């Protein structure tokens, strides 16, 4: 009995691999939020959570990456303290960051989709584009309305808040690209976004 | 792995999770339909009373889970104060706090297994599309099992960095961590297949 | 009157996650080869982390060559290196030469200088071909050796080792032990290996964060082994009863 049947889904030996990769990357998204902040560039510490979301897509591809992010969000919703800072629970979804949480699966999916489709670009470049379009554009597109609707901020305040994080997130996207490239070199068969 | 469910039993623990979630959705919609800060304040008081009724520890935990919201409360308060709309500001703040507290109340009074039950029931119709319900339970179990494992490995990598550098660890540790996650995934997949597969 | 040189703990305590792992401990470690033995959970690793400055003492003081390990990180790293158990949780950089160069770069050496030094060291060990290889393509024993080299390259005066050969086969262990025996620095090793301790100057037996034995390795190991036998027998009667 396969994990999921879909058009063109390769059932040969990959069912269990898909499942375990989805689960492990859900764990990775959690871990990257739970460890103390790391430096993107000397002296610029950030929480690496959204880096995990980008990587889920760029490394595993659209479907598995999306599932991994979805699994992570579901676990947080079910009451596990897996969000950065050891937070969790349903309250997060009706609060200011609710939109971003809900946007994680879409962000990972889009990031993976670009890496999978843009085959004539080198992996690093595709991963950069995917991370920006998925991890920033799509994520903000869902997150910022959430901040306005649930956080009570005005549009201008929400956009101002976004601009503070934008530079850091662009850096994260470039790092996601470099990391994806490195992982492909070290474990070529495991980076499923580029078969 | 510890969840956010309150270990102290309350009457709400016995209410079926599905019912609580539906009630939460309706109540939250109701909160967002209210405009008058007076009504919202009353709702908030009722909610606070409910927390205290269920237990002091639970009430304290619920209050603690509201703490990360203070920057937003501050911004909203300052903005609405400056634009001469204190009532609007009060409404926004009260609604935010009440909605979050209510949702967290469901989290604190619902066990993980009950939440999983709701998810499994909700995704059952998808089985017709080929989604194996056992897969969901297994994926949840694996993710929960491996988060502390990966976390330990991440801490070890940070220590390896700190043993050689006085500066904070950089993004570079994400590469070996990613390799470890990929290798763990392969190992567990092999173990699964050895046990007869999914 | 203890000299500033050496490792000195003065009523140092370590509390992790609310639990007191090490109650007030006072030790002076000045010998050249010191072994630390004890059961799992006895506080051995925590003691190492206290000395290495990865954990700050909750009270009391720790001094390494006069330096506060958790306070003066830069100063400590110049004097002390740590080798952890699992190379896969230790190697950060993809390529061997990058991993070797990392410590030197953190000490201020430029990228080219550090890489040159890394390659030179590999050549001196007869492994020049490792330089541009991914660390993951090395065997387990070779990865252990890589971690050892990475730490030795920083030329610390003291080296802390946390069960460095756990899980390795005998020939690899022997090879690595030879490399360590030749090391000029002070070694403080957490180990179970009696063969390794045989040549050591001093052994400290840690039990629940307290010193249960301290002195020549042979005597301490005998006492430790006897105590472990007792425990095993007690556990058996407990189970049988």
Q: Give the topology string of chain C: H per helix, E per strand.
A: EEEHEHEHHHEHEHEEH
**Spans of chain C with pLDDT under 50 lasting ≥5 residues?**
none
Radius of gyration of chain B: 23 Å
Biggest sheet overview of chain C? 6 strands, mixed
Mean pLDDT of chain B: 91
Report the biggest beta sheet of chain B as strand number plus sense, adding barrel if it closes. none
Fraction of residues in H or I helices of chain B = over 70%
Radius of gyration of chain C: 19 Å
Shape of chain B: extended
Q: Number of helix segments of chain C?
A: 8
Describe the overall structure.
The complex is a heterotrimer of chains A (195), B (198) and C (241). With 195 residues, chain A is an all-alpha fold. Chain A is built from six helices and two strands; from the N terminus they run αββααααα. Chain A has a two-stranded antiparallel ribbon with strand order 1-2. In chain A, helix 2 runs parallel beside helix 4. The longest helix of chain A is centred in the C-terminal third of the chain and has 32 residues, at 155-186. Mean pLDDT of chain A is 90; it is low at 1-12. In chain B, helix 1 (17-33) packs antiparallel against helix 5 (86-108), helix 4 (70-82) packs antiparallel against helix 5 (86-108) and helix 7 (133-162) packs antiparallel against helix 8 (174-194). The two termini of chain B are 24 Å apart. Chain C is built from eight helices and nine strands. In chain C, the strands form two sheets. In chain C, strands 5-6-7-3-8-9 form a six-stranded mixed β-sheet, with helices on both faces. The longest helix of chain C has 24 residues, at 217-240. Chain C starts with 6 loop residues before the first strand and ends with a helix. At the A-B interface, helix 1, strand 1, helix 2, helix 3 and helix 6 of A face helix 4, helix 5, helix 6, helix 7 and helix 8 of B.
């Amino acid at each position: 009995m396969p994990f999921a049947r879909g058009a063109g889904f390769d059932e040969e030996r990959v069912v269990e691999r898909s499942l375990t990769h989805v689960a492990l990357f859900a764990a990775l998204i959690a871990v990257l939020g739970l460890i103390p902040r790391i430096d993107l560039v000397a002296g610029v510490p950030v929480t690496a959570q959204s880096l995990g979301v980008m990587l889920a897509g760029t490394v595993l591809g659209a479907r598995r990456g999306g599932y991994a992010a979805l699994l992570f969000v579901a676990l947080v919703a079910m009451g596990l303290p897996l969000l950065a800072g050891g937070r969790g629970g349903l309250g997060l979804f009706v609060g200011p960051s609710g939109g971003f949480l809900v946007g994680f699966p879409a962000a990972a999916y889009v990031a993976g989709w670009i890496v999978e489709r843009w085959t004539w670009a080198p992996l690093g470049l595709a991963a950069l584009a995917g991370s920006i379009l998925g991890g920033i554009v799509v994520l903000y597109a869902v997150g910022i309305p959430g901040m306005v609707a649930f956080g009570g901020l005005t549009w201008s305040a929400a956009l101002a808040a976004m601009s503070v994080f934008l530079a850091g997130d662009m850096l994260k996207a470039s790092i996601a690209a470099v990391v994806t490239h490195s992982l492909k070199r070290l474990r070529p068969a495991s980076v499923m976004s580029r078969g | 792995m510890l969840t956010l469910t309150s270990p102290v039993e309350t009457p709400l623990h016995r209410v079926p999770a599905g019912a609580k979630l539906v009630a939460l959705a309706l109540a939250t919609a109701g909160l967002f339909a209210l405009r008058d800060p007076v009504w919202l304040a009353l709702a908030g008081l009722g909610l606070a009373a409910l927390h205290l009724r269920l237990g002091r520890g639970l009430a304290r935990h619920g209050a603690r889970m509201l703490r990360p919201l203070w920057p937003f409360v501050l911004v909203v308060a300052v903005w609405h104060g400056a634009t001469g709309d204190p009532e609007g500001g009060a409404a926004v703040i009260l609604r935010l706090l009440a909605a979050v507290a209510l949702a967290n109340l469901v989290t604190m009074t619902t066990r993980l297994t009950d939440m999983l039950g709701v998810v499994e029931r909700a995704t059952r119709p998808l089985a017709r599309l080929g989604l194996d319900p056992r897969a969901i339970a297994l994926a949840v179990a694996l993710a929960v099992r491996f988060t502390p494992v990966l976390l330990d490995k991440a801490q070890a990598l940070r220590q390896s960095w700190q043993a050689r550098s006085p500066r904070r660890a950089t993004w570079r540790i994400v590469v070996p961590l990613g390799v470890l996650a990929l290798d763990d995934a392969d190992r567990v997949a092999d173990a699964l297949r050895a046990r007869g597969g999914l | 009157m203890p000299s500033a040189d050496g490792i000195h703990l003065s009523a140092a305590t370590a509390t992790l996650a609310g639990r007191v792992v090490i109650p007030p401990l006072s030790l002076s470690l000045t010998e050249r080869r010191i072994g630390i033995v004890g059961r799992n959970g006895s506080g051995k690793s925590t003691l190492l982390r206290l000395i290495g400055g990865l954990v700050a003492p909750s009270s009391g003081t720790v001094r390494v060559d006069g330096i506060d390990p958790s306070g003066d990180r830069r100063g400590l790293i110049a004097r002390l290196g740590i080798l952890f158990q699992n190379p896969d949780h230790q190697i950060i950089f993809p390529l061997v030469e990058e991993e070797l160069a990392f410590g030197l770069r953190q000490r201020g050496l430029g990228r080219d200088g550090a890489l040159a030094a890394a390659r030179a060291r590999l050549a001196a060990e007869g492994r020049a071909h490792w330089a541009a290889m991914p660390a993951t393509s090395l065997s387990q024993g070779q990865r252990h050796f890589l971690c050892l080299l990475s730490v030795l390259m920083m030329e610390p005066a003291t080296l802390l080792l946390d069960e460095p050969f756990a899980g390795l086969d005998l020939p690899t262990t022997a090879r690595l032990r030879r490399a360590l025996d030749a090391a000029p620095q002070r070694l403080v090793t957490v180990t179970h290996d009696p063969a390794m301790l045989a040549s050591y100057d001093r052994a400290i037996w840690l039990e629940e964060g307290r010193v249960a034995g301290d002195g020549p390795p042979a005597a301490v190991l005998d006492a430790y082994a006897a105590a472990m036998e007792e425990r095993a027998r007690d556990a058996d009667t407990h189970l049988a009863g």
